Amino acid sequence: MSRYSALQLLRGALNGQKHWQRAWRDPEPKASYDVVIIGGGGHGLATAYYLAKVHGVRNVAVLEKSWIGGGNTGRNTTIVRSNYRQAPLHNFFEFGLKLWEGLSDDLNYNVMFSPRGALLLGHSDADIVRLAQLGDALRHDGIDAELMSREDVAKFERSLDMSQAARFPIHGALLQRRGGTARHDAVAWGYARAADALGVDVIQNCEVTGFAMAGGRVTGVQTTRGAIGADRTAICVAGNSGHVAGLAGIKLPLEAQTLQAFVSEPVKPMIDTVIMTLAYHCYISQSDKGGIVLGGDPDKFPSYAQRGLPPQVEKAAAEAIALVPALSRLRMVRSWAGVTDMSFDGSPIIAKLPLDGLYLNGGWCYGGFKATPASGWMYAHLLATGTSHALAAPFAFDRFARGATIDEAGTGPLPQSR
Amino acid sequence: MLLIACPHCGSRAQTEFDYARTLDAIVPLDAAPEAAMTALYARTNPRGEDDELWRHSQGCRQFLVLRRHRVTHAILAVRAWEAM
User: Please, what is the end-to-end C-alpha distance for chain A in angstroms?
Assistant: First the structure.
């Protein structure tokens, strides 16, 4: 693989840019691998990359049923932040945010990480107390958080409705300046290219249809492109976690639900940050292409459909207009839905499963994109060493039975209430 | 939007209803701890049909059992729920 650089561009200028090679190979699956990763999304590709780079495990395949990054990696609102209240969560996501900050250089691929700030709005005295507590919890662990007054918010993000006539007047906000957005497709492509360069086989159009077992141990997978042996088999399939684990006869504390996102026609820069709020489940940012990207609530019932229903479209649009009235003039041009693996405490699972040789990285709910680098790093650590990284240890599979759930929203085992 | 045929009220828009949980997720009050854990946390979560408990919360407020396909969103059967 040749490195991407300004010099390469200049060289191409002399030969009509004809020297570029394909970014990753299209290999035939081998008979067996040390590690087979099921799922070629950001998390699976990042896992393969860190396995090869950090742990030297290069005999690795990533199996993807369609094309890489075509699932939830390409179906999110691209927000990156680490402002969670509970220590196991914010320490994990902060580890990821630090990886994001150097990711383009590390992968030699521009993931367009744009730390434009993640602004969490509060709309009452109680909200401001909650934001202050959240900020204290974050700063206690060395994570940036600034409590902003109403006046600060008005200066920082000028598109917001700051009037007292707003449905929920804005009282203040908590800002994480290092948060922002990234280009989601580039994350999948960058990890695929970098992993491929280290010898990982990225195999597309290869769906896993079952597991091979011997002596109570998982010894590989059956796929639409034949049987593939594996010393360690790693599930990393987001919304399809329940389905794939079901092929091995394992039930998970997860339920699949659809989550939609929407994008407007492109306009000139009008929203400088990522707007989130305690009043609604609505988040707004502007893509580098100019489209206003909106996210809303999940559909709140189990579904694997990859398409959402109209009531949540209407709700998200109404909420966005209540925050930024100027958006009422825009037309929505596209919407899409991802199948989220809603875990029963809202936190992920990165753990060995009760079957030997089988591992799970799932349960990311609607917050998986921002976790991509950290998730891959921690899963690679588990697969290479057989033990959990200290930051991933709280996300064990048996935490539900132990009563050690990490429930940020405090809603219990009801994903539709999250 | 889904159209759900409530056995008490007739066909109504899905926004009148709330999904509660799957039928195998009902925890009996006298369940042993292991059985309660399984009911609370072990989901089959099939990419296909399942029996789900919904509530007509903006209508008659009764619980219903829907047999539903989770990929096509087809509602195959609706019946009133009777507590075991």
Answer: 44
Helices A372-385, A87-101: crossing angle, 10 deg rounding: 100
pLDDT digits (tens, 9 = 90+) for B18-47: 999 999 999 989 999 999 999 999 999 999
Residue spans of chain A under pLDDT 50: none
Interchain contact, B37 vs A344, CB within 8 Å = no
CB contact under 8 A, A253 and B43: yes
ipTM rounded to 2 decimals: 0.94
Strands A118-122 and A274-277: parallel
Does A401 sit within 8 Å of B43, measured CB to CB?
no
CB-CB neighbors (< 8 A) of B41 in chain A: 253, 344, 400-401, 413
How many C-beta atoms lie closer than 10 Å to residue B31's C-beta? 14
- Asked if residue A174 lies in contact with residue A83, where contact means CB atoms within 8 angstroms, the answer is yes
A56: phi > 0 → left, psi -120 to 50 → alpha, else beta; which?
A: left
Determine how many CB atoms are found less than 10 A away from the CB of residue A155.
9
List A residues 289-308 in contact with B (Cβ-Cβ < 8 A). Answer: 300-305
Model pLDDT, residue B84: 55
A402 contacts chain B (CB < 8 A): no
